[in-house]
Structure formats: C-alpha cells, structure tokens
Amino acid sequence: MPFEIQILLIDDDEDDRDFFQFALEDISTNIGYAGVESGVDAFLYLENNPLPDCIFLDLNMPGMSGRECLAKLKSRTEYHQIPVIIFSTSSDPHDKKETMEMGAVDFITKPSKPSDLVKELTNFISHHFAQKI
Q1: Pairing outcome for strands 54-57 and 84-88
Q2: Which of 7, 10, 64, 86 is the most buried (most CB within 10 A)?
Q3: Alpha carbon distance 132, 129 (integer Å)
Q4: Mind listing the pLDDT tens digit for each residue in 53-112?
Q5: pLDDT in tens, 20-68
C-alpha cells in the first residue's frame, strides 16, 4: 500500500535522520520517509524517485549548504513547487527570515527531546496534510 504522505529529509547528521524517522513512525504508518545526507544526494534522490510531498532541510551541512540547496530547489521548475521546511539547530530570527524569503514554507528548530519532535512534526503534518492522514 502506498504511503499517503512522502517526506524527504536532507541532513548530514545520521542521528538526526534516525531521530526524525522514529518520530514520523510514532505519528503515523501512512508517512513514507527518505533521508539523505547532502544536497547533492538530495538531487540524485529527486531525479530517481517520485517527488516527495515536502522536504525538510538542514541549514548547516558541508559541501552544499542548506541555503544553497534551497536556492537550487526553488530555481528548478521541476522542484520549486515542493514545500521546503527548514529543520535546523539554529533559532536565529535572521536565519528564519532569510530562508522564508528564499521560499521555505516553515522553519523548525530541532528539539532535543524526541517527544518535542513528535509534537512539532504532528503540528506541521496536521496543518499541511490533514486530508491525507
């Protein structure tokens, strides 16, 4: 059975990718998840898989930064319509303002507790995808 929602996480930290996946599994079995560790890997994923319903994107990554990845996503016609949510350790209002101006639809500061991440993701998913879950 296909997933109702497909989410892509771009984050260089393997622990954060695992943490995110476990939180999604707590929320619903109708959510598909893929995690990649870089912007370069993200574009390879996007070229070879069905497009996700949304992308969660870390800002601080080696190689292609989150800002560079966001700019590239928003500049490509085949990807610009995919909602991008910044998922970062940053809580800097400047980072939020800048990335929202670049086209991100939301900005979530990574919580330290699993229960807080489940709560953040539940709020986001219920707000944006209530009809699908």
Answers
A1: parallel
A2: 10
A3: 5
A4: 999 999 999 999 999 999 999 999 999 999 999 999 999 999 999 999 999 999 999 998
A5: 999 999 998 889 999 999 999 999 999 999 999 999 999 999 999 999 9
